[in-house]
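Build the 3D complex.
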Amino acid sequence: MLDFKLNLGSNADAGALYDLIIIGGGPAGLSAGLYAARYKLKTLMIEKAVVPGGQLISTQWVENYPGFPEPVLGQKLAKDMETQAKLFGLEIVQEDVTSVQLKGEIKEITTIYNTWKAKTVLIATGSSPRKLGLPGEAEYAGNGVSYCATCDGPFYPDKVVAVVGGGNSAFEESLFLAKYARKLYLIHRSGNYSADPILQDRVKAEPKIELMPHNVVESLAFAESPRKIILKSTVSGETSALEVDGIFIFIGAIPNTGLFEGQLELAGGYIVSDREHATSVEGVWAAGDVQEKVLRQVATAVGDGANAAHAIHSYLMHRS
Amino acid sequence: MPMLDDNVLQEVKKALANMDKPVTLELFSQAFECGYCKETHQLLEELSAANPLLQLKLHQFESDAEAVKQFGIDKIPAIAVTGEKDYGIRFYGIPAGYEFSSLLSAILMVSTGITKLSAEAKSFLDNLAKPVHLQIFVTPTCPYCPPAVMLAHQMAFYSDKVKADMVEISEFPHLAQKYSVQGVPRTTINEKWFVEGAAPEAMLIARIKESL
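Done.
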């Protein structure tokens, strides 16, 4: 089956003053873009990837977003959100933001190609996969170390892989990888898993997956043949070697807030915002995973985006 | 049955309406032992019918030795996107899925002459002393791959010293082996140096500098 995805960006005008610039095109940004466009705000989304959707793009199936009794493909949900927002006039450019100037009446967002200007900014930059921090981890990224099962799973047909993590991502992606791999070890530092119970049941029912609780990955012996990872028991402290062809790491996320350090209030790297999603800087809002909050899901990101767009609309109305 | 459904074809026509100068898609194909030659041929037929400035030229890989040599083609299906000259822009394997955007971008770039390269990148490319061959290994289902392909193709378009190949790795498993590709995108520079992921312009340039 062949399909053809076309996304060439819009002809946005870098000389214009936008009512709102949304940085980041995941579910929070796309929802805010939809609402803002319907409020008739002149809105620009700046997204670094060629296709908006954020983490939805690297998620195989979404089955806890309301309205889809059958699981929906993450990429389809993202594409539909984008189409819907564009229908109402959201402009999207594919550029990587290099710096921001958030203070004052006019905010400036600089990419390597343009400096965009707006009266308000919504930060919806989400988060990126957290790394284990092992020597060699960066060197073998894309060649044995992966953070995206839908991207790299097909490279492991009939192979043996390790997955590290104990949350929803680790469990969901293990079930996906088990379609390719011959054997999968699911490694977690404790015996308490934070993955939803329904996912835990499915993983336990999958004969290819072996749970290895109470273990941490100590090092990667990928220069050896066959490749191994070295595990250390968190109970006994003993180390052991495990032969694997590759390792997938799903141990949470780190917020994409490097651009904003020193310009607005952060807590643990996440952006602090009030119940209207306003940040510590006037005219700047935050929505989705990048905010300091408890539950980071498509469903919560969508609500954040809608609320933030509403607050931005009110703010602009009262100002003019 | 057409490959491009009506919605996609309308989008294609809209995008190609921005074309300025003629572009030729030089396709290298053969009737046997080629996984996606037939599909690639049909795709380019439909694409070239979408705008009169876009032309398809078919070469037989097994018999058209002169063209194979001229364009330096070593595997099929292969597409060279050419305009006033051959810029060294290649697609090996079918540009389907997300890579369809890379193909359209290359066509529009060659036709309009517009690239998004920064001033720094241009000055680096202006002063290149040695040839640079970029190969970007991708799969059609990889959403992070087109930016890497588009960046490399822009460099090839801008500089006569740079050649850039998109390589759809699932069609060429021996290359996955040879270049140890277990994740995409993966870019090789002059066969030896590697970059993981969709590297931003500055990072790719730094890596090219290291390789020279």
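The mean pLDDT of chain A is 93.
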